[in-house]
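Hi U.,

Before I forget, here's the chain from the pilot set. I'm dumping it here mostly so it's searchable later in email.
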Amino acid sequence: MNISGTIKSIQDIMRKDAGVDGDAQRIGQLVWLFFLKIFDDQEESLEILKDDYCSPIPEALRWRNWAADPTGITGDTLMEFVNNQLFKGLKELDPTLVGERGLVVKNVFEDAYNYMKSGQLLRQVINKINEINFNKSEDRHLFGDIYEQLLKDLQSAGNAGEFYTPRAVTQLIVDLINPQLGETILDPACGTGGFLTCAIEHLRQQVTQPEENEVLQQSIRGVEKKPLPHLLCTTNMLLHGMEIPSFIRHDNTLASPLRDIQERDKVNIIITNPPFGGTEEDGIESNFPTNFQTRETADLFLVLIAKTLKNYGRAGVVLPDGTLFGEGVKTRIKEFLLRECNLHTIVRLPNGVFNPYTGIKTNLLFFEKGKPTQTVWYWEHRYPEGVKNYNKTRPIRIEEFESLKAWWHNRVETEQAWQVPVATLEANGFNLDIKNPNMEDAIHASPEELLVKYKTVLSNLKAKQEDLKSALASVLRQF
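Structure:
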């Protein structure tokens, strides 16, 4: 079936509704509806596989009993049911009675909203959604690709753009970290779940026995503090076959004191793109030691990640250039990281990877807990031939990283790769913003050389101007 056409039809219907304003609301509306449909389809499978399965959702509120019939309730009757019975009932589920799956539903609907005002239009949307069967692998996979595009569309939905990390970046980090079945994987700022879905797909390739699927189900953890991305991520987990995505907590990872992290809280792997460029709410910094206290979110996350890893645990983290060259608290955090962990690789990305949300240059930091850094390897990722910048129509692609993957396990210095001893970094005040020494570029020339080149360019330009004036004067004389 044409699922892409179905989604477009749904969006077109929503645009007619006076209550839905903008992409973020439209996607929020769409996703809670899809959550209930996916949840109900998943329940059909669980009822077959588990003799004792009992739905945590009251019968009258299950999708199959109010939404599945295309000629069912509509208009004002549907709106009254959704606003006064469905939302109210799901928000008030008793967590002591409904179990973990019921708690997932309750948490999702605590901050969900029905923006639509027309019951007729809502019925049309529901009927379109019913065309998709999430128990059919083909439908599920096709929708998964479209869901990825919906998440990407949030880049143009105001501040919601921060929720999406390009798939090529999440895929690369997971490929290089190479999670193994049985390892616990955490994204402490999981957004819509891009890193976690890549990790699930990576681990699923290792599953050969039913009991190994149970191991996979217990391996994933995520935390997201904002309501919309939490809803998007939880739905994403269901879509990727996770039965009880209660491991996606609606919380702020930074809100608990660092000293409260216990051994049971630590994980083998952390993969994340923590928010950067902003500041945390008042008082959050007091959860960290005095010498690390700052309002800059990315810095706090870097400390938290190092503390949350188990010994020999691995991390792949997206961070802005400012973290590499920043001073003050940033310097102390970088010193701490180099002492506590082996920061073995920094991948330097060019401008535009996160366009249109931000043009800030970013880096991928890879480190392992338990032994200090001796040498940091740098890899400079370059634009493909013919590409001057990344944008919405020409995003970064996973295929561009083939040379990096080939180099990863056989490291030598090249025009794109170089290494820096930790002693050099220490002598440089822990400035990690090391330019590529193997690339000839005007930026590495001395001021005197640059001045000579500048004068040459001016001289050539002046000569061209004189030639143009002479040619023009010659033409004018002919008249």
